[in-house]
Design a protein that fits this description.
The complex is a heterodimer of chains A (294) and B (193). Chain A is α/β, with parallel strands linked by helices. Chain A is built from 13 helices and nine strands. In chain B, the strands form two sheets. A nine-stranded mixed sheet of chain B has the order 2-1-3-4-12-11-10-7-8. A three-stranded mixed sheet of chain B has the order 5-6-9. The chains are: A alpha/beta (294), B alpha/beta (193). At the A-B interface, strand 1, helix 1 and helix 12 of A face helix 1, helix 2 and strand 7 of B. Strand 1 of chain A pairs antiparallel with strand 7 of chain B, so a sheet runs across the interface.
Chain lengths: 294, 193
Amino acid sequence: MKIEASEKVKKGLAEMLKGGVIMDVVNAEQAVIAEKAGACAVMALERIPADIRANGGVARMSSVSVIKEVMQSVSIPVMAKARIGHFVEAQMLQELGIDFIDESEVLTPADEVNHINKRNFRAPFVCGATGLGEAARRIAEGASMIRTKGEAGTGNVVEAVRHMRTVTSEMNQVINSDEHELVSLSKKFGAPLNILEEIKSLKKLPVVNFAAGGIATPADAALMMQLGCDGVFVGSGIFKSGDPAARAEAIVLATTNFNNPSVLIEVSKNLGEPMVGININTLPEEEKLAKRGW
Amino acid sequence: MKVGVLALQGSFFNHCKSLELCDLDYVLIKRLSDLKSINSLIIPGGESTSMKIIEKEENLFFAIDKYIKKGLPTLTTCAGTIILSKKVIDGDISIPNIDISIQRNAYGRQNQSFEGDVKFLDNSDIYCFIRAPKIIELLSSDVKPIAFHNEEIVGVQQQNIIGLTYHPELTNDNFYLNWLKEYLKSGEHVGSF
């Protein structure tokens, strides 16, 4: 007997990625640098978030040729982004044999009401969340993995921290609630009741939860791990920095040794310039990517 | 009695959960200093390429290799089994301790991952194979097949090492947990390292 694409198989790959760093890459050359630096997966995309932010325009799924090139260049899992609600981009990524699909707010949304019905897919999905309600809705739609949204392309970790703290604090409310309070919490958070019941009984999210959005230094990665994330996505933070290979490896080591300050000091030496950050308070509301998603 | 769980990257917390269900104490191993006083060892699944880069900071694998060669009862799953294989097709050799030739991602990408029947010792159950490797060849008579998926060998024993290509820690059935407890406890008699 052989069962493919079951929930367990989809969530299983996310379990294998834990404790690791998933790096944004725009071509095969960057993918190889990421793999050699110890990335547990790469995310193939056309432009990294900082460039999407700088150049503007509509950001879409990567070109098929870039995705294929990245898939051929490394042996680790390859993820790719589809626009929110763009189930045809997701169908194409699945057909290409991509290992994980990110239905991502970093790209320009294709549907301003609905997300992709991820249960229809054989490929596992990861989705961003700013709080428990959003995480639970994505899980109900079939996401096999959740990540904080953070504020991608800013090199500023503050939003990722806010989102992780919000998820944790709202999850604690659910876990510590009386069973009579669950419907009310479901209404309050906009979270499907059955997912909250599952969280209450497991005493944790039913899927792996990574940090993403604004992580630029080994210390940022360690901070997110100490806040309880299962692993880390790094986007612009690596290939917008002075020495991508060294910074990538340092962030990998920091993610493993997140609670060991002496290792964090050691790996943070001689990394060259980090990416230039953006103060999120100065961003106009319409440019905040974390607001995308419903 | 303490089990060391290699915790560089991968599904190590799932193995810790199995150990909690077995009522066994464990310690996460990230640095050389964590390697003190363990009676047995688990090397989990994950990405072997990531683990190899993280371990080289302190040459942790070199130290682990010595422990294994001294007889520490060791369980490896998926990427962990690749790390101990003597020959690796499409990958690098790390600390060869199991006389097998293994192929990384042998079934294909994630779209070929599956849950399948496994006959492990006297028991049959369904387990996950995630971008799993395949044991292509047994390279000596010291290696005994102990787990099968259809006709394929998916688990072997060589002296103090059990190497599996699938993920019992994602299922945690009673047969596995009972076996795990007995197997890891055998380290008590070997003495702590």
